[in-house]
C-alpha cells in the first residue's frame, strides 16, 4: 500500500508521487507518515523531507510550512522547498558567507534583520549539508520533480 505525496512551494509543484513512507521535520520533532495515517495538520520546521518508495528515497530541503495528512495523501505546503539535486552549492555557500559576515559584526540595532540573517545562515547550512551528503554518497534515485 502506498500514500500519495505532494510538495508545493509558493511558486511551484516541487514533487508529486507515491511513497511507502514520508518523513517530515515537524516543529515538535521528526514525523514518519505511513499509508492510512490518521488525519493530521502540523507545522513544519527547517529541515529535511524524505519520500521513500521501495529502495528509492527522494530528499528535499524545506524551510518550514504546513503538512496536511489524510489516510491516502500527504500534502506539504512549504515556505520554500527544493530537491537535493537542485541545490546550487555556490549560491548556498555565498549566502552562508554573507550571513556569517553580517552576524560576526554582532547584534544589529535592527533585530528583524539580525533574525533574518540567522535564518539565512540556518537555511544555507541545511542546503550545504544535504548537497554535500548527496555528492559524497553519489546517490541519485531519479530526476527531481515528479515521482511515479
For the largest beta sheet, what order do the strands appear in spatially? Answer: 2-1-9-8-5
The CATH fourth-level homologous superfamily of the largest domain? F0F1 ATP synthase delta/epsilon subunit, N-terminal
CATH topology of the largest domain: ATP Synthase, domain 1
Number of domains: 2
CATH top-level class of the largest domain: Mainly Beta
Sheet having the most strands:
5 strands, mixed
Q: Give the amount of beta strand, in percent.
A: 35-45%
Question: Could you give the order of the helices and strands?
Answer: EEEEEEEEEEHH
The whole-number mean of residue pLDDT values reads 90
The termini sit apart by 14 Å
What's the alpha carbon Rg, rounded to whole Å? 16 Å
Helix content: 25-40%
Number of helices: 2
Structural class: alpha+beta
Question: How would you sum up the global shape?
Answer: globular
- Give the quaternary arrangement of the chains: single chain
For the secondary structure, the number of strands is 10
| Known CATH architecture of the largest domain | Sandwich
Describe the fold and architecture.
This protein is an alpha+beta fold and 148 residues long. Helices cover 29% and strands 39% of the residues. It contains 2 helices and 10 strands; from the N terminus they run ββββββββββαα. The two termini are 14 Å apart.
Amino acid at each position: 500500500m502506498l500514500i500519495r505525496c505532494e510538495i508545493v512551494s509558493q511558486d511551484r509543484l516541487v514533487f508529486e508521487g507515491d511513497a511507502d513512507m514520508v518523513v517530515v521535520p515537524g516543529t515538535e520533532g521528526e514525523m514518519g507518515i505511513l499509508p492510512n495515517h490518521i488525519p493530521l495538520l502540523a507545522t513544519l520546521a527547517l529541515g529535511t523531507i524524505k519520500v521513500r518508495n521501495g529502495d528509492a528515497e527522494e530528499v528535499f530541503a524545506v524551510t518550514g510550512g504546513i503538512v496536511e495528512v489524510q489516510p491516502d495523501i500527504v500534502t506539504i505546503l512549504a515556505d520554500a522547498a527544493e530537491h537535493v539535486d537542485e541545490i546550487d552549492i555556490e549560491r548556498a555557500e555565498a549566502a552562508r558567507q554573507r550571513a556569517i559576515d553580517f552576524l560576526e559584526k554582532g547584534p544589529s540595532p535592527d533585530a528583524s534583520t539580525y533574525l533574518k540573517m540567522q535564518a539565512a545562515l540556518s537555511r544555507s547550512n541545511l542546503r550545504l549539508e544535504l548537497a554535500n551528503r548527496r555528492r559524497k554518497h553519489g546517490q541519485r534515485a531519479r530526476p527531481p520533480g515528479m515521482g511515479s
